[in-house]
Structures are given as C-alpha cells and as structure tokens.
Design a protein that fits this description.
heterodimer, A: alpha/beta, Rossmann fold, 9 helices, 10 strands, B: alpha+beta, 6-stranded mixed beta barrel, 25 strands, globular, binds adenosine-5'-diphosphate, binds magnesium ion, membrane (chain B), transmembrane transporter activity (chain B), transmembrane (chain B), cell membrane (chain B), MacB_PCD (chain B)
Chain lengths: 241, 846
C-alpha cells in the first residue's frame, strides 16, 4: 500500500525539565492512501497534537513528519501554507467556515486562495454527494450545524487533496447528524477514493474507519483493523486503565 | 481557562492603550495650541514691556481713522512739538518717533521679509535717547540724509556689514544709503521677525512720511513727578484744537500689548476651532472603541448579569474604565501638547521669527482645562456604549454569538432620513427666498442625518466600493469587501472621522474653486492691459506710486497706471477709497464707467459704484464729504457711476485729490499696456529691470496676473489643509484601532483561513483592502456632503457677488487617491498583527 502521510519518532514536548509534558513520545506511524484511518485515545493522549504535526499546523520537537515524501520540517511558512492548501483537506470540530463567504465560496476556498479553477466535474460530484446543491448561496449563519459540517466536508474534498484530516468532526453534532457526516466521509473513501485521517474518542465514529490507531500518553498503543463499536469500546476500556 | 483570562486582560490592556490614543491625539492639539498661544502672548507682552520700560510718556495725535480689517492711520504731528515737550518741567528727554513701511533690499537684490504675509517691514528713527528703544551694537547712529542703520537680523540676512551701500524702498520710492550701524531692540536681534531700516529724524520724516512731521514723541521724565502728573503737564501745554494726547508709559505698553493680543486672539480662535474639530472627530473614535469593546465583552457582561450584577453595575464598570482612559489619555495628551508647542516655537525660529527668551507658558489652568475637556469628551463618548452594555440580557451569555447586532434599527433609518429630508427642505426653502441664516440649520440637519444613517448606508456603499477589490483580488478581495460590510455600525463609525475631515476639505475647496473662477472672470474682463505689477502687501505698504510713472516712461510702453488705496473717514467711519490716475487708466483697467469718461474725474470729484449709489441714494452731482488722515476735509462731487466694484470697491478718486496732503497711499497694482508693434520680450525685460530697481512687487503677464490673483485664495487653503491634516491623522488612528480590534475578534477565522491555505501575504491583503474600503467609504460620502456644503456656502454668498459654483475636480481626485493611501497606511500594523495570529491557538481555544 502507498503511504500518504507518516511520522518517524515524532516527539512533542511542552515545557522544560521537571515540568516537561510529552504530548507525543516517539510516535512512528504510517497512514495509507485510500484508507479511512481513525486515531483514538483518551482525552489528553496526544491525538490532536499528532494530527496538527502531520498536517503542518504545528512543529515537532524532534523526529519527522511527512506528507507523501516531503519532510515538513524542511518547509518554510509559505511553502507549508501552500502544501496545506494543495495537499491537505481539513475538517474541524467547529468553526469550520468563513462567516462572510457563501457555502459555495467556502467549499472552493482552498482553490480560490490558490487562484485555481479546480476540477469542476469533481466539485459538482462532491456537492452532490453531500447533498448541498440547494444551499450553495447561503452563508454559514443560514445553515444548520449539520449542513455546516457537510460544507466543511465538501471543502476538504473539493481540492482533491492527498489526505484529509478531521479532528472530532462530529463532536458538536447530535448523533443523527453525526452519523450522516460519517457516512459521507465513508463514501468519500469508498466512492471517491479519498484518504482520511480522523481524530475521535467516540467508538461509534471510529467504527466507520478501515483502521484504528490507538494512542495513550503520547505513545502508540496498538492498532485495530475492521473495527466494530463493541470491539473498540473494549479496547478503550483497557486503555483507560 | 487561565490562558483565556490572561488573554482577556492583555486584550483589555491593548484596548486601554488604543482608546487612550484617540484621547491623546485629540487633547494634545488642544493643549498644544493653548500653550503655544499663551507663550506667544506672554512673549509679546514681555517684549513690549521691555521696549517701553524706560518710556514715561507718549505724545501723539488723537485723530485716527480705523478702517476694516484692523487697518488704521493716525494723524501725524508737527516735528516742532518735540522742542515744546522737551521744555516741559520734569521732562528729561523727548525724541520723535516715526514708524512706516520700508523694505530693505538684500545684497542679492531680493527684498528682505515677505510682502503681506509674515511680520511687517518698517522704516523708523534711531537717535540717541535716554529711554532708548534701540541700542547700537556695532558702528554708530545714522546721521544725515545718506546714512542708515539696520536691525541685527536684517543686516545678517541681507549679508550687510557696516560700510556697505544699502537700498531701501519706501512710499516715496527707492534710495541708497550707507550702512553706518547695526542696532538691536531690547534684548532681541529683531522684534518678532520684523525688519527695520533706521534713520535720523529729518531723513525718516522726509523719506518715510512727510518732512516736518512725526508719528509720535517719546518722553523720559527726570523722576521729579509721576508718569500721570507728567502726562497731564505735557497735555496742558497744547491747544486742545491741536488734538494731541499724552499717554503714560504704562498706558502705551498696555495698548500695544492689547493690539497684539487682539491679533493673536484671532489666531487663537482659529486654532481652537481646529482643535475642537480634532476633538470632535476623536470622540467618534473613542465612541467606536467603547462600542466594539462592549460588543466583544457582551458574553462576559451577560455572565455578570446572570450571576446577579445589576444593569447599573455593568454600565458603571464601563464608565469607570472610560474615566481611567480619559484621565490617562488627557494627561498624556497634555504632555504631547507641550511637545507640540515646543515644535511650533521651533518652527517660528526656523522661519527667523526671533522671539525673546522666556520658555513655554504652561499654566495649571491649561492643564486643568485639557484634562477636564478630555475627560468629559471621553466619558460622554463612552456613555451610550456603556448603557448598551448594561442592557445586555443575561441570556446572551448562553448564546454563541458575541458580535454586535448587525443591522441598523428601523427607527434609526427613519430618524436619519427624516433629518436629511428636513435639512434638504430647509435648504430648498432658502433657495426659494427664505433667509440665509436657515442654511446653517439645513446643513447641520443633513450632516446629522447622514451620520445617523451611516450604519444603514455603510453596508450597500461598502459593497459597491468593494466590488473592484473583489474583482481584482479574488477571494481575498471578496472577504475584504464582506468584512467591511459585515458590521455596518462599526464600519460607519470608523469611516465617520474620514467623512468629517473630507467633507470639510471638499467644502472649503469647492468654495475656493468657486472664488477662484469668479476672480479669474473678473480680472479677464476688467484688466485690459498686457502686464501687471502685483503686490502682496495687505493694507501695510505696497508699491510706491512713482513706480507706475517710471514704468510709463519705458520705451515700448504705451501707458502704465497704478491703482491704490487711501484710508479716509466718511460720516466719521473709516473707509477705503480706490485711487486711480485718470490720465493713464484708459485701456489698462476697466471699472465699467456708465456714461462717463475717466477724464471726468478731477481733483474735486469721485466716482461711485452703482450699488453704492443705490444704497446711499446718491447720483451724479451729489456731494460726498471725506476727511483725510491729516484731518483736512474734502467735499467731492460725484462725477460718474460705474459697474464693476469687485476690485475697485465702491468709491474711486483721483490721485490729484490728496496731492500734497500728509497721508499714506500705496498702489496695490500697476497695469501696463505695450505700444502697438513693440517687442513683448524686450518690453518685459525693461519692465523687469525697473521693477527690480524698486525691489517692489512682481511683474506678471496678463495671464500670470489673473492666475496669481485667483490663486491667492489658495494660501488660505494651505493653512486650512494643514490643520485639517490633523483630522486625517485621527481618522487613520481610528481605522487602525478598529482594524486591530476586528483582527483580535476574528482570530479564529484568521486561524482557520491560515490552516486551509491562506498565506501571510493574503492575510495582509484582506486586512488592507478592508481598510481601503472603509476609508473610501468615508471619503466618498464626505465628498458628496462636502461638495453639497460648498454649494450651500457659495449660494449663501451670492449677494457678495459669488455667482458661479465650481466643483474642485483636482482636489476631489486628490482626496480619493489620498484616502486610498490612508487606507493602505492604516492597515500596515493591523495587517501585520493579523499575520501573527497563532493558527493552533486560534483553532483550539473555544
Ligand atoms: N499548548 C500546550 N501547552 C502545554 N501543553 C499542551 C499544549 N497543547 C497540548 N498540551 C498537552 O499535551 C497533551 C496532549 O494534548 P492533545 O493532543 O490536545 O490531546 P487530545 O487531543 O488527545 O485530547 C495534553 O496533556 C495537553 O495538556
Ligand atoms: Mg483533541
């Protein structure tokens, strides 16, 4: 399988000496192309930190993070920004959209920022997939929470990125709407061939993934393929102890 | 939670500094101008106290003509009175004094000092005297018809040393003297920047005024009696019919100080008008900052309300903050103002206006005033936002949005519209014949209405103005446009200072353009010659009448005529007559005579304008009695009426009328026509040589002259622009503050944008364009309002002869370009701050 993103001995330390906190401690992990991977772990285990570092939003204290074969630590701010724009899609837990732009503009935001047209056929397909056709001219304040997250999913997909990172994308949604979003993400991988890495602490959400990477205390604490909510819950219980 | 709390405090500290900035700038100008004028006032008071220190009495004529604009001419007194005064018991020494217009020509041929604008250029008397005004610091006193002494600054600026030949120009023409002494006045090199050419008494009388006459007599007593007794004794020797009075030293000092004080108080009033404008504009910025601050703290305030704080407590908390800001800002402003005053004094010194030492006059009163005004303005500006903060419902704490309510209320829109409409109707009524004084009310209503309407029109106008940005800059432009429009209240408050400044500039320049146009039209019609010599002197000095005669003799010149002024009394009021030379004016200048010839104007005649004839019910053949400055009377017969009173005024007399009288009269312009077929280049060269020889005025072609006359109004404009520049600065500060607060408020949005791929330079672009759109919004509305205001003012002056309104195209374009630049400049720092937003922090803090 082709590796879309990876880390080698990724370490992130906050503070110094006695008060040093290891948010990530020697994490080496690969994320494969065309797969839906979930990162799981208890609160404070370093999930978000790991995602931020691979996505070029944060810097590692030591070790390396790569998107394709590009070592992120070699990139300056401008190149890193362009890499995020072109190769990465983002879905955050909340406040995903720019309030002054319409849904359509929000979806195309990375393309617009890069002054690119993008693949119009693809964009239409994405919009169809997330059922947003009749909401395109609305601004975020005129959309429900679920619709807003769908726009965010569409934005992450629109530029055909190498990899999409989602940090608790359903954390702020009720379970029905959350399920809907997870289905879309699943569909994006199955039907559109996308690569998604999702941070979550919800076993049900994680069960939509092909593969789960467990984190505990900033270290890799195992993996699971073809997860079900029950299996995940069991595993989480053991991690919690 | 700790991080959030810390950020709140830091945010508030930044806000405190930002709010104070608006107060500081507003009050600094207030303090600066009041310290400066107080300093100037005291400086002159000290100067004259010094100058008259040893003078115990001052003898002069009681007859004085006071014209418009502070012009005055006092009758001269016979020189032989000096001996009589010297003979009065108790008088130790008495000398004559003469002070009149005279210009020193520098070694390079250029006259020292400036015509019209700036300190005056004097000719005066320097003799050895017990109460000496002047002391000779080098060389000796001037004696005889060929010797002169100069004040130190003039000698230095003219590059003269004792022994040089110095050319001096006075009413009777130009003459060369030998420099025999350098003099200083009190303890300064030259008083207040004025230049002095000093002569002995007979020379001064003959060259500057009239032989045998002096302006006044300075007296020093022997100490045997008080100044009052001495003055009474001196008065007693004169026949009351002579109309002579004697002032004590203290009286003359006080009078001179008061005269200067009056002149300065005009300056002071002008400065205080501008500092009020600055403060008013500043109050918008203060109001804006407090509004934004209240909006950003809405959730915090709602939480306070939810846990039991009363409305009044929340309001009071904000008002307390405004008191702190007001006091802090005003104190800083006062300190800044002192710096400003130092700068202004330095500027004067650089312009070679030498003021006696004495330091700045910083009174506790000025400090108190500044701080009180600053405090009141700040608290008043903060009052509404504070009240609104108190009104926040406790429920708002649970709501996610912490933004200001977006749309303007319906009541506001109606109130604004009503005010604008009422204003327009008022103005309309005036155009249909209602009294002019209603115009001001109309304008005020329109202005107030526009400001009230601001939030309602800010959004659509910002969207229109932002369209090019969106087209040009793609998504960053789109966001800038939307950002400028997303909070119309805030945007309109931010744009208001720009609006006010721009409206004032636009109005003043529309007025100026209209006056300009009018003046060009007048001169194109009335000045029919080929060349003119113009003088900038305004009421003091001008061109020697002999210059016109000399120019007329030049080969290739058909005729040259001078037009001047003479101050007289009519019905016991000071009036200015226009003086012409009937023999030469024909073909050079046209006053629009009706059924009369210039040659009809003899020495007992007067021409009057149609307006004047109508107003005073005079006609050809009527008699007009005038009293000259030497108190001689003339009964003048009206010989004709004329139409053009724009330049010629209402009364025209011949030079012959006052020939031989003991009065001052200068020409303000000379008009020249070439002989047919003469070579204009050669003629111009000869004219120039003659003018240079006099060292007076400027030789101009017809078109140059028309442009110059029309351009004079621009000097006034320069001053007004300079001072309005201040409101531009405040406007910039206002934009900077608002943008900074907006950036602070939009951190999450900026973080998100950075995460999904917005580069730092794109972040900057977005902020910059938002700033430009805001600035342009103020400029566009300001131009519309300003031009309308200009039109109204021009309209209200229609009776003063201002008939055509002109749009200042150049200025309008310049304002647009400038406000664009203002927008770009104001965005520099906020844009930089926006690029420093920590992406992760913005994304993770909730
Ligand atoms: N800016 C920071 N400063 C100090 N410690 C931090 C910072 N960000 C995260 N941490 C710490 O790093 C650890 C991992 O955090 P995070 O990656 O957010 O965990 P998760 O997303 O799994 O809940 C936590 O212990 C957290 O307290
Ligand atoms: Mg997390």
């Amino acid at each position: 399988m082709i590796v879309a993103a990876s880390t080698t001995n990724a370490t992130k330390v906050y503070g110094k000496d006695d008060s040093a906190v290891y948010a990530l401690n020697n994490v080496s992990v690969d994320f494969y192309s065309g797969q839906f991977t979930a990162i799981m772990g208890p609160s404070g285990s370093g999930k978000s930190t790991l995602m931020h570092c691979i996505a070029g939003l944060d810097e590692l204290s030591s070790g390396s993070a790569r998107i394709d074969d590009v070592d992120l630590s070699t990139l300056k701010d401008k190149a890193l920004t362009e890499l995020r724009r072109e190769k990465i899609g983002f879905i955050f837990q909340s406040f995903n959209l720019v309030p002054t732009l319409t849904a359509d503009e929000n979806i195309r935001l990375p393309l617009l920022l890069g002054n690119e047209k993008g693949n119009e056929e693809w964009i239409q397909r994405v919009i169809n997939t997330v059922h947003l056709n009749d909401r395109l001219t609305h601004r975020p304040s005129e959309l429900s929470g679920g619709q807003q997250q769908r726009v965010a999913v569409a934005r992450a997909l629109a530029s055909e990125p190498r990899i999409i990172f989602a940090d608790e994308p359903t954390g702020n949604l009720d379970s029905t709407t959350g399920t809907e979003i997870l289905r879309f993400m699943r569909k994006a991988v199955d039907e559109l061939g996308q690569t998604i890495v999702m941070v979550t602490h919800d076993p049900v959400a994680a069960s939509y993934a092909d593969r789960i990477v467990f984190l505990a205390d900033g270290k890799i604490a195992g993996e699971m393929l073809e997860p079900t909510p029950e299996k995940v819950l069991d595993r989480m219980k053991s991690l919690g102890n | 939670m700790f991080r959030i709390a810390l950020k709140g405090i830091l945010g508030r500290k930044a806000r405190l500094v930002l709010t104070s900035l608006a107060v500081i700038i507003g009050t600094a100008f207030l303090a600066g101008t009041s310290v400066f004028t107080a300093t100037l006032d005291r400086t002159f008071n000290n100067l004259f106290e010094d100058v008259f220190k040893n003078i115990d009495g001052y003898v002069r004529s009681t007859e004085v003509i006071e014209g418009e604009f502070g012009l005055q001419e006092r009758q001269r007194i016979p020189a032989e009175l000096v001996d009589q005064v010297n003979a009065v018991p108790g008088v130790a020494d008495a000398v004559p004094d003469i002070q009149a217009f005279a210009r020193i020509i520098g070694k390079d041929g250029k006259p020292l000092g400036s015509e019209g604008a700036g300190p005056p250029t004097f000719g005066s008397v320097a003799v050895e005297f017990k109460g000496a005004l002047w002391t000779i610091s080098e060389g000796q006193w001037p004696v005889g018809a060929s010797e002169v002494a100069l004040d130190e600054a003039s000698a230095r600026n003219g590059n003269y040393v004792v022994g040089d030949t110095v050319k001096v120009v006075a009413q009777s023409g130009s003459r060369e003297f030998t420099l025999v002494g350098i003099a200083s006045y009190g303890d300064v090199r030259s008083p207040g920047g004025a230049t002095f050419a000093l002569f002995d008494v007979p020379t001064a009388a003959e060259f500057l005024g009239k032989p045998g006459f002096v302006d006044a007599i300075l007296v020093v007593g022997d100490g045997s009696r008080t100044d009052e007794e001495l003055a009474t004794d001196i008065d007693a020797i004169f026949d009351p019919a002579l109309k002579i009075e004697t002032l004590t030293g203290a009286e003359v000092t006080k009078e001179t100080q008061d005269d200067i004080g009056e002149a300065l108080s005009f300056f002071g009033i002008l400065l205080s008008i501008f500092s009020s404008i600055a403060l008013g504009v500043g109050s918008f910025v203060i109001y804006n900052v407090f509004s934004i601050s209240a909006a950003q703290r809405q959730r915090e305030n709602a939480l306070l309300r939810a846990i039991g704080a009363s409305r009044r407590q929340v309001t009071r908390a904000m008002l307390t903050e405004s008191v702190v800001v007001g006091i802090f800002g005003s104190i800083m402003g006062f300190i800044g103002g002192i710096g400003l005053a130092v700068g202004l004094s330095g500027l004067l010194r650089a312009l070679d206006i030498d003021l006696p030492q004495g330091g700045l006059v910083v009174t506790p009163g000025a400090a108190f005033n500044t701080i009180m005004v600053g405090l009141i303005v700040t608290v008043a500006s903060a009052y509404l936002p504070a009240r609104r903060a108190g009104k926040v419902p406790p429920l708002a704490a649970m709501r996610a949005t912490a933004l200001e309510t977006a749309g303007p209320g319906r009541i506001r829109a109606y109130a604004g519209l009503a005010s604008v409409l009422l204003g327009l109707v008022t103005i309309g009524a005036v155009t249909l014949g209602a009294t002019n004084s209603l115009l001001g009310v109309g304008v005020l209503l329109v202005f107030a209405g526009t400001i009230i309407l601001g939030p309602a029109i800010a959004r659509p106008v910002a969207l229109v103005l932002g369209r090019p940005a969106a087209k040009l800059r793609g998504v960053t432009g789109t966001m800038a446009r939307q950002n400028a429009a997303r909070n119309p209240k805030r945007t309109s408050r931010t744009a208001s200072p720009v609006l006010i400044g721009v409206a004032l500039v636009a109005a003043v320049s529309a007025l100026a353009a209209s006056i300009n146009g009018q003046i060009s039209d007048i001169f194109s019609e009335q000045f029919t010659g080929d060349y003119a010599v113009s003088s900038q002197a305004q009421g003091f000095g001008g061109l020697s009448p002999s210059l016109a005669t000399d120019l007329g003799k030049i080969e290739g010149v058909q005729s040259a005529t001078g037009i001047g002024t003479l101050l007289v009394k009519i019905d016991d009021k000071g009036r200015t007559l226009t003086v012409i030379t009937p023999e030469t004016i024909e073909g050079n200048y046209d006053i629009g005579l009706i059924d009369a010839k210039y040659s009809d104007l003899d020495k007992d005649g007067i021409f009057i304008s149609l307006d004047y004839a109508e107003r005073e019910e005079l006609s050809v053949g009527s008699t007009v009695n005038v009293v000259l400055a030497d108190t001689t009377e003339r009964a003048l017969t009206v010989r004709g009426l004329y139409e053009f009173n724009d330049l010629a005024g209402n009364r025209v007399v011949s030079r012959e009328m006052f020939a031989g009288a003991n009065v001052n009269s200068f020409d303000f312009g000379i008009y020249v026509t070439m002989s047919p077929g003469a070579d204009s280049k050669e003629v111009r060269a000869s004219l120039q040589a003659a003018v240079d020889d006099y060292g007076q005025g400027k030789l101009l072609s017809k078109q140059e002259y028309i442009d110059e006359q029309a351009g004079q109004i621009n000097q006034l404009l320069g001053l007004i622009y300079g001072l309005l520049f201040l409101s531009v600065i405040i406007a910039i500060v206002g934009i900077i503050i608002t943008l900074l607060l907006s950036v602070f408020e939009r951190q999450r949005e900026i973080g998100l944008l950075r995460a999904v791929g917005m580069t730092r330079s794109q972040v900057r672009t977005t902020v910059r364009w938002e700033s430009v759109i805001t600035s342009l919004l103020g400029a566009v509305l300001g131009i519309v309002l300003g031009l309308a205001l200009g039109w109204v003012v021009v309209f209200s002056l229609r009776d003063q002869g201002l008939t055509s309104f002109q749009i200042p195209v150049g200025t309008t374009i310049a304002i647009m370009v400038l406000s664009f630049i203002v927008g770009v400049l104001a965005a520099v720092y906020p844009a930089w701050r926006a690029t420093k937003v920590d992406v992760l922090e913005a994304l993770t803090t909730s």
